[in-house]
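Table S2 (continued). Query chain:
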Amino acid sequence: MNFLQFKKVLHSHKVFSTRDIEKEWPDFNYVNLVNWQEKGYLIKLRNTWYAFPELLHTEEDLYFIANRLHRPSYISLETALRFYNWIPESVFTVTSVTTAKPAQWYTPVGHFSYRSIKPGLFFGYLTVKGKSTDFNIAAPEKTLLDLLYFHPEYAEQDDFEGLRLNKEEISGLLNLDRLDNYLELIDSSALDTRWGSLKKYLGL
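Corresponding output:
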């Protein structure tokens, strides 16, 4: 197998698995993957998952990888807060929400972490069409609710100080009616209470 032929078929994937390879070449010799890694043509992200390093340039590419490595999933929590410019700090872990088992992987391109949620709560995300690729990320409203859901320690107004939330950016982007609809779907009095505290803190 010639690497240029291999790349011509799979380069549009950016990230691919051995299953993707099997669909194209059922008799593929996987020794090739080892050789191509040694030459720097490929990088191994986790078991059975690989990428073309020269095609990964931006945070959008990392979000796309996160969506692919563990399915179904969408970007959320601290990563989404940073994406919406709601917190000032850089985020070095790409955090996602999934209905699969929780997981985390340290890869040559970054650290990917996944928090598990009930299938009935797996909603409220959207597809962002970026410059280099598309990816799924929590909608602004679901980003805050995911934060409160996975961090019950954020219960009182004082608890939110450490997050250094950008109140102006949040108020300009948040749709309160949509958020209330999400709360009805989730149907959790504890989450309703925590949202009430955050809402007061944000001055909404």
